[in-house]
Design brief:
Blueprint (H helix, E strand, L loop, with lengths): L2 E4 L2 E5 L10 H17 L7 E6 L5 H14 L3 E7 L2 H10 L4 E5 L8 E7 L8 H13 L13 E3 L3 H10 L6 H7 L2 E5 L5 H11 L3 E5 L19 H9 L4 E5 L6 E4 L8 H15 L3 E5 L5 H8 L4 E4 L3 H11 L1 E6 L3 E3 L9 H15 L3 H6 L5 E8 L6 H11 L4 E3 L4 E4 L4 E6 L5 E8 L2 H19 L2
Parallel strand pairs: 3-4, 3-5, 4-7, 8-9, 8-10, 12-13, 12-14
Antiparallel strand pairs: 1-2, 2-6, 5-6, 10-11, 14-15, 16-20, 17-18, 18-19, 19-20
Helix pairs in contact: 1-2, 1-4, 6-12, 7-12, 9-10, 9-12, 14-15
Amino acid sequence: MTLIKSISGIRGTIGGKTGDNLTPVDAVKFASAYGTWLKSQSNKEKLTVVIGRDARISGPMIHSLVMNTLVGLGIDVVDLDLSTTPTVEVAVPLEKADGGIILTASHNPKQWNALKLLNEKGEFLSGADGAKILEIAESEAFDFADVDNLGEITSNDAFMDIHIDEVLNLPLVDVEAVKAAKFKVVVDGVNSSGGVIIPNLLEQMGVEVVKLYCEPNGHFPHNPEPLKEHLGDICELVIKEKAHFGIVVDPDVDRLAFISDDGEMFGEEYTLVAVADYVLSKTPGNTVSNMSSSRALRDITEKHGGSYEASAVGEVNVVELMKKNNAIIGGEGNGGIIYPELHYGRDSLVGVALFLTYLAEKKMSVAALRASYPQYYMSKNKIELTPQINVDAILESMATKYANEDISTIDGVKIDFAEEWVHLRKSNTEPIIRIYTEAKGQDKADALAVRIIDEIKQVAGI
């Protein structure tokens, strides 16, 4: 069982001992640290925080603890209750709140939960701010409000509908065109809040919806990470229902995967590629994804006359580079779409609405659309090392070995060859090097990974 404290929040498994797992005491401690940090950043007499949760079983318990901790600090709470990560991100600025907390462990299994922390813009905190909150949590330097200055909780269950309205009002979303196309779509909501909000969005766009695992009870019917090996049921149902395609989201609805009409995975990496292709065809500009994402986004961006850049892994890093480069769309290869026209956060609703509009315009099958893109294949591996081995030294030696190639060291070592690439990153918690490769064939991606792993072992002397 695990408790992981990082600059982006705190996550862990429910139950067990304080400090080793995400217990009620740990939830209160971290919420206290976040609230204390917020108060230190503001001269306002009264602060407000928006809170929402996904449907996991521990959600109501953690939700109550976190809300009432903030009340104890004298902070008002806008309670969205069952919600999604992008919905809370949209709600924070609309409520003119000072921050937000999403209670979700994203794609982790049901025994996990987490506190994801937002600033007043509804965006994830910077590394420096997250580090400060960790310091406050360790010091336990909390100053709670007296009885006359406690915060208040206001319930607002309208924000999933408001979020849908905001998406449907985007200039590049054409509801009438989608209605005319008469799409039929299967939705796997993994029994979380995506099972509520995605069908609602689709129905408002005139789409016939076939629901699969859309009861928000937190009992995930399969591993909630939207990867091929977990999605056999929806792949079969898309074919059985003769649907145009399938939609899969993770429990907090910030990762989006499509199933093509032939029952095959569209590919999480290609969610962003397809949506960016549509956006760039209407509003040319620049794009950003992280270093472990497919080169296909670069190809599509350059086809439309824009420039592409890669950030360090992590949503906050993608957003920072998007702002710097005035990117009009970006995200992560795990199916995370960031469309600044609405907000700077991964948002499956935006991805679905833009993808549907593009399909209606192209008048082609999802399988044919996928086949029209540059074909890249990825291999994701890791190599475990003994604690005594200096991982940084290994990465440095690999960078030196390939110094004549296109090298980036802003996040581990990324080596761009003419036809393929490899990205080496160390784990922050274990003596592990993660090895991501991409090439124009699965055999080539796998072979590159094997070659790099052998070279690392030689350098490490193992």
